């Protein structure tokens, strides 16, 4: 066998080995990237999430009324004067980080934080809604 034939056979093997190495490296880099929670794009989606998280009809209705008044179910709602943020208008908004690092964009994280807040401060979403009706805020 001539040297030129051996080089022609060896070169494609080197190329394939290089491509396999690049693909394996890229695959490892992609699999090592952290997973990000899905963000909620619409008020309708946020309501569906809340409904699943709050099975009691009275508690869901109270929670829904507060969120409707506070943010219109907009995950990104920001109060220009106070800086309150999100579905439940947390002040400051970064308080919601206690429920998850995706608090800026994830309705479930915001709802979880809001429910915990309402339960700890008012006993329940119904208690929070009663306070809201008397004071115009909660």
Element order: H for helix, E for strand:
HHHHH
Inertia-based shape: globular
Contiguous uncertain segments of 5+ residues: 2-37
Tell how many strands the DSSP assignment holds: 0
What structural class should be given to the helix and strand makeup?
A: mainly alpha
What share of the residues lie within helices?
55-70%
Largest sheet entry: none
Number of discrete helical segments: 5
Signal peptide: 1-37
Keywords: Signal
Organism: Streptomyces cinereospinus
Domain Transglycosylase SLT: 63-130
Write the layout of secondary structure elements.
Elements: H1 3-32, H2 43-53, H3 57-71, H4 107-122, H5 125-135
Helix pairs in contact: 2-4, 3-5, 4-5
Protein name: Transglycosylase SLT domain-containing protein
Organism: Streptomyces cinereospinus
Pfam family, one: SLT
Short description:
It contains five helices and no strands.
Which features does this protein show?
138 residues, mainly alpha, 5 helices, 60% helix, disordered N terminus, signal, Lysozyme-like_dom_sf, Transglycosylase_SLT_dom_1, Transglycosylase SLT domain-containing protein
Report on the structure:
It contains 5 helices and no strands. By secondary structure, it is an all-alpha fold. The protein has 2 domains: 1-33; 43-135, no CATH class. Helix 2 packs across helix 4 (107-122). The protein is globular.
């Amino acid at each position: 066998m001539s040297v030129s034939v051996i080089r022609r056979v060896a070169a494609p093997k080197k190329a394939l080995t290089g491509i396999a190495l690049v693909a394996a490296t890229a695959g490892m880099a992609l699999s090592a990237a952290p997973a990000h929670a899905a963000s909620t794009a619409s008020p309708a989606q946020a309501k569906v999430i809340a409904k699943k998280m709050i099975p009691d009809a009275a508690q869901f209705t109270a929670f829904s009324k507060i969120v409707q008044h506070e943010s219109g179910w907009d995950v990104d709602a920001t109060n220009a004067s106070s800086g309150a943020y999100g579905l439940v208008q947390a002040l400051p908004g970064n308080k919601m980080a206690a429920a998850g690092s995706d608090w800026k964009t994830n309705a479930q994280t915001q709802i979880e934080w809001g429910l915990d807040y309402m339960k700890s401060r008012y006993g329940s979403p119904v208690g929070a809604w009663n306070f809201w009706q008397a004071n115009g805020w909660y």
